[in-house]
Amino acid sequence: MIKRIFLFFLVFLATTIAGCGLKSAEPKLTRLTIAAQEWIGYGPFYLAQEKGFFKEEGVDLIFIDEQLDSARRDAFKQGMLDCEAATMDLLVSKAAQDTPIATVMELDMSFGADAIVANEGIKTLEDLAGKKVALARDDVGDTFISTLFYKHGLPLNALTIVPQRPEEVAQAFLNGLSDACVTWEPQVSEALKKPGAHILTSSKENPGIIIDTLNVRKDLLEKNPELVKKLMRGWFKALQYYKMNPVEASGIIAKYYKVTPDEYRKQVEGLAWSDYEKQRNPSEAKEWSDAFTAIVAVKLANGRIFKKPDAAKFINRTLLEDLY
Questions:
Q1: pLDDT tens digits, residue range 142-197?
Q2: Whole-model pTM?
Q3: How many other CB atoms are found less than 10 A from the CB of residue 294?
Q4: Cβ proximity of 128 and 156 under 8 Å
Q5: Residues 264, 246: Cα–Cα separation, whole Å
Q6: What is the mean pLDDT of the chain?
Q7: Which has the least CB within 10 A, 85, 133, 143, 277?
């Protein structure tokens, strides 16, 4: 009996030591939170998570479902949010309100995946005068149509804006609450299900307005830039994986947007992901700054911001330049 107890103790001890050894061999993960709206261009974040690319870099990425930009702004100011995936215009809005963030890289640029969807009788931007347009105030749809009206010399107050939450814009149009809506995929495809609905214009005809970026809280950038670089490397691994395995990758991502893999691959034809080599090009810095400045001008003209933020204070390319 004593021998049996002693043998059991040895087995237990060996198993425990082995288990501890296995645990110690696992990479130590550092927690990072990221918030984003439901935009198909952010799909590689989900791909990187499921394929373990973030884990390989030592990052435990926690996704925060927060569609409202104002809520993300407040979370940044309170130190409750580390990162966000968002459009350049949302960076401008938060910069104008002294939100302590900076963009560190471009995620994608829209080339058709953002659009104004309108009823059958509406053929031009001018036809929208006096019509009801559903959009999310101070969000990318607002910026898109505001920029088009600004460039064409049309008064934005000619529209009757029907404000909606970002994820409810297409449904408002489908329910007949508006004559047109401004939204992005997958909501554009949803809005087009309305009989007679068509794309009035999109980011395909108006590129360079909608750029998605990765924005990071400034104190995190200052204290732990290596952690942010790990997140960025995980993203670029996912982009490369999607490029080499689009069918498998779209199958992983599509479920997060409640579409089929075929639908997802079709929808992302309306955007261009920015790979690492492209972003390292010095010309990109000017493109980012020019886009930031152009959006500032539109928002100031329409009274959506009340001071002019400096692009140089909210664009940080240092991590990108020495990422590897």
A1: 999 999 999 999 999 999 999 999 999 999 999 999 999 999 999 999 999 999 99
A2: 0.87
A3: 18
A4: no
A5: 10
A6: 92
A7: 277
The pLDDT score that the predictor gives to residue 211 is 96
Q: Could you tell me the two tokens for 115?
A: 């659009």
Report, in angstroms and rounded to the nearest whole number, the Rg of the chain calculated over CA atoms. Answer: 23
CA distances from 130 to 90, 127, 138, 157, 298 (A): 27, 8, 20, 9, 21
CATH number of the domain within which 297 lies: 3.40.190.10
Domain with 218 in it = 30-109+210-321
Pick the closest to residue 90 from 63, 72, 66 (CA basis). Answer: 72
Q: Which residue has the tokens 């996704």?
A: 63
How buried is residue 204: exposed, middle or buried, by Cβ count under 10 Å (0-12/13-18/19+)?
middle
Query: 302 exposed, middle or buried (CB, 10 Å; 0-12, 13-18, 19+)?
Result: middle
78, with CB counted inside 10 A (0-12, 13-18, 19+), is exposed
In a 3-state reduction of DSSP, which class is residue 273? Answer: strand
Calculate the alpha carbon distances from 305 to 90, 180, 300, 308, 323 in Å: 11, 25, 5, 8, 33
* CB contact at 8 A, 87 and 210: yes
Give me 74's structure tokens: 């407040």
Same domain, 214 and 104: yes
Q: Is residue 51 part of a domain?
A: yes
